[in-house]
Amino acid sequence: MANVQEIILVYGFTNSHGFFSIDLPKDTPSKVLVIASGLGLETSRHLITMGPNKSEYKVTFVLNENVMHLDEVTLKPNEKIYRTGNVTKINVDAFRDGTEQTIEDVLRDLPGIEILPDGSIKAHGRFISKLLVEGEDIFDDKYKVLSKNLDAKILGEVEIIDQFESNPVVSKVTESENVALNLILKDEYKNVWFGNVGLGLGNNDRIKSSANIGLIKKKVKFFYLGDYNNLGQTATSQSGNATKTININTLVQEKRVESSLSPIYDVAPLRIDQIEEKDIVLNDASLNSISFVSNLNSELKIRGTGILANDIEDQMIFKETLFSTGQELVRYTENHNSLFEKSNATGEVELQYYPRENGYYTNLIKFNSSPQYSETLNMFNGNNIQQDLANDDVSFYNHFDSSHLLWNKHLVHNYAYFGVQSIEQNGRLISPTLYNLIAEGKVGEVHHVSDDFSKIYGVISKLVFNQKKHKQSLGFGYQRKKVARANQFIVNQNHLSTNIDSLENHITFDSNKFQASLNSSFDISEHLRIKTDFSLEHLDINFDQSFFSKWMLVPKIIFRVRNMSIGSFGLDYKRDYTEPLPDYFLMNFQLTGYQSFKKGGDFIAVPRKNLFGFHYQIGNKLKTQQVTVRTRFKKNEAEYAQNIQIDESILLNRYELVKGGTNFTTTLDYTSYFKKLNFSSNLGANINWSKLPYKLNASDFSNLELFSKGINVSGTTYFEFPVNLDLDLNVNWTESNYKGIVSYSNWINLSTNLLLKLNKEISGSFSNKYYKMPNATYFSTDFDLHYAPQNSKFSYQVTGNNLANQRNFTILNIDEYSTTSTQIKLLPRYILASIKFRF
């Protein structure tokens, strides 16, 4: 009850039958409002005029239902990991240790997610197809720029999406095996501009600066990511495409066909898998990227990405290589001092048009320019060699996809593509050894100039018939590819230039392919699926005076046993062919390095190969415990093998068609997360065995046998108390056998991180890395301390790298027919102090 100004005088509640009574106070005004309200009901008011001789009033209320419509209601269970449908959701805050700087740092310690050395990401045992932000694909294949640079603080949740399909029309017809990650940001970073700027300075002139700017709204998402450093973190490696898992189970395999042309002469920085980039790269790296996605209207969406990366890198390397020739061992010693400058400018614009539920269209335009310049001084077998090389690689591609859903969920999918690539090289080489070979001991320079060009275009159309348990597709395709290679070999002496025709190539390689395919997928039962694929392909190859034309049948069959209590199984077989590369038909020897040449043959063949596969997987519903086993066996009926002649100064390589080799690969992945123990672990094992035909300083081909195996064990704790542990152990073995000459090597990598979280503001990590090789042992200690005041926009960091100040790293590698000991100079010890401002 209230007065007319609605100031409450007295109140009460109804009983279980809806009756109520209120005792009036002594100073009740002459007019009062009696107001009745309830949850989910409309409010009702009655005005009562108080009489002088009346002590009781009866009022009846009828309250109507009040229906409220909420825009969105999200209910989240209070769990670290939970699953909804095909989506596994991970609460990021439950797994943070406080030292994470980027999204990659966060993902690295989440159960079920693995970060590979090149930055590619695996989830639930498969390479992810997309890294989404709030459900939107922004960077496409170049998601490493996002994961390696976006601020970790903004991330609230990560979703692992199984059976992910980016095409909304295709998803209604076929079943995908793809996996994607979706990054969910914290609420305070939505619908506002956010970001950070950071600066770090250290001894030995070490520096790191970074900037993030982002905007996440319903209709537009935008990111600027920038970085500069000389701490060994290269920029151009981030702008490359990430690895993907091929989805072989779908009737519509969306792919992008592009040229794979690469330069014949190549000078590139050395990378060692066993040690991180930041330990061995002496560089100046800068990265700038802009990306956005915008809904222009309810039907049309545009996505764009622009990346500009640049690296200037120094390397000092000593190498000693022993070639297993079957005769007297040949030894090469090399002492490199090299400067590399590489840039990468890449841009993408994609339009996505979704006018109705049964039609979806995309058009992607890609441009890439990668100029590179290198200078190398080398002491090779006692002779001084100098080489300079300018290389420019430019490409342009256009990809168009259209999907139409017909009656009864039948589907028509069309894909058309076009692309060009150009590689230009201009090199200068001063080599007494090489000059003595071609110019009878006179001193001078060698110039090698190359102009390579590739053009490719084609179209693929598929009609998919969806009959619930039985699906079929009929497809047709055509592809035209043209590759032209031209090089000059010029000898300069006393300001006179002479072309050596016998070391030059001017070739044109044309390929035409027509394809007709019939695919079928049968769901025999809830648990058994059989998929068949029969493709009839006609391949024409025209190479100067040589010509190849043939029809070939490419059969494929897949068995899937799914959703069993003991797990899921898969068997597959495919008989395919390998289209030969233009390099196999170089008419003359062409320079490939300062002491090596390559030459092709004159006979065109298309070798056939047989591929067998098996996989097994079992896991719980959350996929927090999961075992995956994959086995692949490949047998080549024939292949273009290498005929190699090695002496004390020159390596000559010819391609010849011979009986093919075999390859067998098995991998095991075991992922586990134990909620009650606050512990996650991963066990990985791999075995690789191959027989490859080689002719090495011999008259006949012999099989080179390669065998390698490796075991990886990692574990992370997530205790509530201040100290946690992160451990990673790798043990690897490799062995080669060529004509009875056996080479063997093994190495151990052990990394332990002690993670400290003293309170909500102070955290840190102390990392120890141990490497054991047959001829060397390496040990390094790093630390990372963070101070992030809760009520401040500033945060502070102190980082120490290579505290033991190790100067060199040595590794023994067995590579095909050789054993190589490599010693590389390391980034010297530094301590870096950083400050970051977030807004």
Class computed from helices, strands and strand pairing: mainly beta
Number of strands: 45
Rounded to an integer, what's the Rg over CA atoms?
A: 33 Å
Report the portion of residues in β strands.
over 45%
- What is the straight-line distance between the termini? 49 Å
* Number of distinct helices: 4
Q: Portion of residues in helices?
A: under 10%
Describe the global form: globular
Unreliable residue runs:
none
Mean pLDDT: 89
Largest sheet: 26 strands, antiparallel, barrel
Summarize the structure.
3% of the residues lie in helices and 61% in strands. With 839 residues, the chain is an all-beta fold. The two termini are 49 Å apart.
Key features?
839 residues; mainly beta; 26-stranded antiparallel β-barrel; 6-stranded mixed sheet
Could you characterize the architecture of this molecule?
- The chain is mostly beta strands and 839 residues long.
- It contains four helices and 45 strands.
- A hairpin with a 2-residue loop joins strand 19 and strand 20.
- The longest helix is centred in the middle third of the chain and has 8 residues, at 432-439.
- The relative contact order is 0.09.
